[in-house]
Specification:
This protein is an alpha/beta fold. The protein folds into 2 domains: 141 residues, Rossmann fold (3-Layer(aba) Sandwich); 73 residues, Rna Polymerase Sigma Factor, Chain: A (Orthogonal Bundle). It contains 7 helices and 9 strands. The strands form 3 sheets. The protein has a 5-stranded mixed β-sheet with strand order 5-7-6-8-9, covered by helices on one side. A two-stranded antiparallel ribbon has the order 1-4. Strands 2-3 form a two-stranded antiparallel ribbon. Strand 8, helix 2 and strand 9 form a beta-alpha-beta unit. Helix 3 packs antiparallel against helix 7. The protein is globular, with a radius of gyration of 18 Å. The N terminus is likely disordered.
């Protein structure tokens, strides 16, 4: 399996033991990251979606990050940390036998542990899309006085039953067959990522979906996909906080 390249500039952080909400201690949390812009300036934390990496500035949000762009690295530092459970340099199922169930809150706490190690005490903005938006909300709620603004994109306060159902089907496909299941899970997910108008502009929609499934299988780990899909189904910012107001 070929994974997306990590930023060549920073080695992963080694952060020591990390205890999950489920009470399981990961003995040696490692977090891959990328940092762009002046390190002593204001900081923006960008959080990737389910199959993303820490390489926001060089890959999936490249048009938005850089000098003179929306997230202007001439004026501020942009940090992206690979999420707990992913397969792009942060501790996940590829590294730990019987990797425990985790939550968006676990991910947010791991992000803060990494930010502490980087010397980042305050975030002017936290943003991310989909799973990244869910974690962005939790990052802000974990340390509200340390976050100026939060901008979740395509992310609810609590997972809805329809989205949870889609994730449930994807998890069942992965249990049937890891590699083919990952391809089919991606195909199903793609039908929720694109609009009807977008699909109507494409010929041979079946071939398009098959291509997307194979492409993901070639670059992503099925165990991480299952772990992170499960994370989304655990999303509820009101849990143990008195519910949603």
């Amino acid at each position: 399996m070929t994974l997306l390249p990590l930023s060549p500039r920073e080695p992963p952080l080694r952060l020591g033991p990390f205890r999950t909400e489920a009470g399981v201690t990961l003995p040696d949390l490692q977090v891959a990251y990328r940092r762009d812009g002046p390190s002593l300036s204001s900081t923006v934390l960008v959080i990737h979606a389910l199959t993303g990496s820490a390489d926001a500035a060089g890959d999936w949000w490249e048009p938005a990050i850089g000098p003179g762009r929306a997230l202007d690295t001439a004026e501020r530092q942009v940090v992206c940390l690979n999420l707990l459970g992913s397969c792009y340099g942060t501790t996940g199922p590829r590294d730990v036998t019987d990797f425990p169930p985790i939550t968006p809150r676990d991910m947010a706490r791991a992000q803060w542990v990494a930010l502490d190690a980087l010397g980042v005490e305050r975030l002017d903005l936290v943003t991310g899309g989909s799973l990244g938006g869910m974690v962005a909300l939790e990052v802000a709620l974990e340390r509200p006085s340390a976050v100026g603004r939060v901008m979740p994109i395509a992310a609810p306060a609590v997972i809805g039953n329809l989205a949870a159902g889609w994730n449930h089907i994807q998890l069942q496909l992965l249990e049937l067959d890891r590699e083919r299941g990952l391809e089919l899970a991606r195909q199903l997910a793609m039908t929720t990522y694109r609009s009807e108008i977008d699909f109507d502009t494409r010929d041979e929609i079946g071939s398009y979906l098959e291509h997307q499934g194979v492409k993901l299988r070639q670059r992503f780990d099925a165990g991480s996909y299952a772990a992170l899909a499960g994370v989304m189904n655990a999303h509820d910012i009101g849990r143990d906080r008195g519910g949603l107001v």
